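Chapter summary example.
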Amino acid sequence: MIRTNNLIAFQGEPGAYSHQACHDARPDMEALPCRTFEDVIEAVRAGEADLAMLPVENSTYGRVADIHHLLPESGLHIIDEAFVRVHISLLAQPGVTLDEVTEAMSHTVLLGQCRGFLRDHGIRSITGADTAGSAKIVAEQGQRHIAALAAPLAGEIYGLNRLADQIEDRQNNTTRFLIMSREPDYARRPNRAGEAGMLTSFVFRVRNIPAALYKAMGGFATNGVNMTKLESYMVDGVFTATQFYADIEGHPEDENVRLALDELSYFTSMLNVLGVYPADPLRAEQLRQAR
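The structure predicted for these 291 residues follows.
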């Protein structure tokens, strides 16, 4: 049996938003930085870490490239989801004041999320490899006129002062992460807010028959199962081979979910459940706000 070591793996430098997700969702665990998403998955498969923290989509920029290709082949199972608000801080050397900063470094995506603040303060953008890496460079170079845009956690790690917080143009910018482990956990349990909402994620390929996708989706409608996500992507670069990723509300043991999945299996050539897990409390909060 692989021993547990209380480590959760993430992709990026210490202080990255994936690290922030680990810090927020699993504060009792030590975060293990990895170079690539593949390295994160392998760390868990090899027993070097107990859990993997993987970003799958952002409310502003859509799904994270390559993740949906990696999940089905990972051999890991989704046991939880975590929504992390993308709060951006302007980080600089200790003692530096805001009026001294003329340049800000970060990943190009983050720079694009702070255009208003940078314009108002006359700060020029510098593209860095990533957010936490930019904070590390600012800390190492020691130049007073250059700051970094990154998560507040990066400032703590690299000894930088937070000159301004929550400077993002969109205050509702949120990244969804999936927490994965070597073993599935189908046990019913409430989420962190004490609510019992469950989600089931799976991938499937439809059979090569007319209207197969339409027929496959019919079971969810007739059984009253809410599908919160359905995405398609090519398999092995072949235009005729399409795989679908889906999230639905409910647990496979629920009667309506069981019936819907049974009907789906009739019209598919492959069906693989990736995980059954409680919904993040922020999901219900956003739904209430949308109504």
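To summarize the output: The longest helix spans residues 255-266.
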